[in-house]
């Protein structure tokens, strides 16, 4: 684990850059995490995805299935990848402060 | 079905030969490969997307829907323990002149196409070691 500064706060991240304490997340943290994913400016559409993921995680303690994410936010799969090129799991979930998703792809 | 053979090139990179065609598979750098091609699991997504695109395009061609081509975007939803695909999520873009009734019909047909139907029913995987 490594300590880094995100959103003006020191916090622990894993080897893939996911924050370890979801309670430390705020929008400033999200903005800095987005830069690590190559997204320099978070638009309203980015925030729509990030807040949906965040709210879902806080309610269910897990990330939503991708189809549910698309249906609830109104974005196609391609639009989700246009917003977060590394995808909903490794990109959008990271920016939303969720734990690292499982799996190898 | 013709024989498919998988032979090592180097590291975790393998060459797959079938009917005179050759494709390559490798693991990502993070997973010990050199990213010399899609991973075996990614080919599962390739097979699903290509199957849908091919069958749906053939249907549209037969019906004379020509305002655009069929395209498919997809991703794999992964889970651990054991590491596997939980879902293959596919968006199919249809020619613009496909009427609403046929869109619904195609959605039903899509789940019966060879690769989706095979995955849904879980084929027997029969392995011998020599």
Word description of this protein:
The complex is a heterodimer of chains A (105) and B (130). The mean pLDDT of chain A is 92. Chain A contains 5 helices and 2 strands. Chain A has a single domain (2-95), classed as DsrC protein, C-terminal domain (Arc Repressor Mutant, subunit A). Chain A is 49% helix and 10% strand. Chain A is mostly helical and 105 residues long. Chain A is globular. With 130 residues, chain B is of the alpha+beta class. Chain B is built from 3 helices and 5 strands, in the order E-E-E-H-E-E-H-H. In chain B, the strands form 2 sheets. A 3-stranded antiparallel β-sheet of chain B has the order 1-2-3, with no helix packed on it. Chain B is elongated, with a radius of gyration of 17 Å. Chain B starts with a strand and ends in a 9-residue tail after the last helix. The mean pLDDT of chain B is 94. The A-B interface holds A 65-67, 70, 76-78, 81, 87-89, 101-105 and B 31, 39, 41-42, 73-81, 83-84, 86-87, 89-91.
Q: How are the elements arranged and paired?
A:
The complex is a heterodimer of chains A (105) and B (130).
Chain A: E1 2-6, E2 9-13, H1 27-36, H2 44-60, H3 66-73, H4 77-83, H5 87-95
Antiparallel strand pairs in A: 1-2
Chain B: E1 5-10, E2 13-18, E3 21-25, H1 40-63, E4 71-79, E5 84-93, H2 100-110, H3 114-121
Antiparallel strand pairs in B: 1-2, 2-3, 4-5
């Amino acid at each position: 684990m490594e300590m880094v500064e995100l959103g003006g706060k020191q916090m622990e991240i894993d080897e893939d850059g996911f924050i370890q304490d979801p309670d430390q997340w705020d929008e400033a943290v999200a903005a800095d995490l987005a830069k690590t994913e190559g997204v320099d400016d978070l638009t309203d559409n980015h925030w729509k995805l990030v807040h949906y993921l965040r709210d879902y995680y806080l309610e269910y303690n897990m990330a939503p299935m991708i189809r549910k994410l698309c249906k609830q936010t109104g974005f196609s799969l391609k639009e989700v990848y246009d917003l977060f090129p590394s995808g909903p799991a490794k990109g959008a979930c990271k920016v939303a402060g969720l734990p690292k998703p499982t799996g190898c792809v | 079905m013709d024989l498919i053979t998988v032979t090592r090139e180097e590291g975790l990179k393998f060459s797959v030969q079938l009917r005179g065609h050759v494709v390559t598979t490798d693991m990502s750098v993070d997973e010990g490969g050199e990213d010399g091609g899609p991973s075996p699991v990614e080919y599962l997504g390739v097979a699903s997307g290509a199957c849908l695109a091919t069958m749906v395009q053939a249907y549209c061609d037969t019906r004379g829907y020509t305002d655009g081509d069929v395209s498919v975007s997809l991703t794999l939803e992964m889970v651990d323990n054991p590491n596997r695909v939980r879902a293959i999520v596919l968006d199919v873009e249809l020619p613009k002149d496909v009427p609403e009734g046929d869109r619904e019909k195609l959605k039903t047909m899509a789940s019966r196409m060879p690769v989706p139907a095979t995955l849904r029913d879980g084929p027997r995987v029969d392995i011998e070691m020599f």
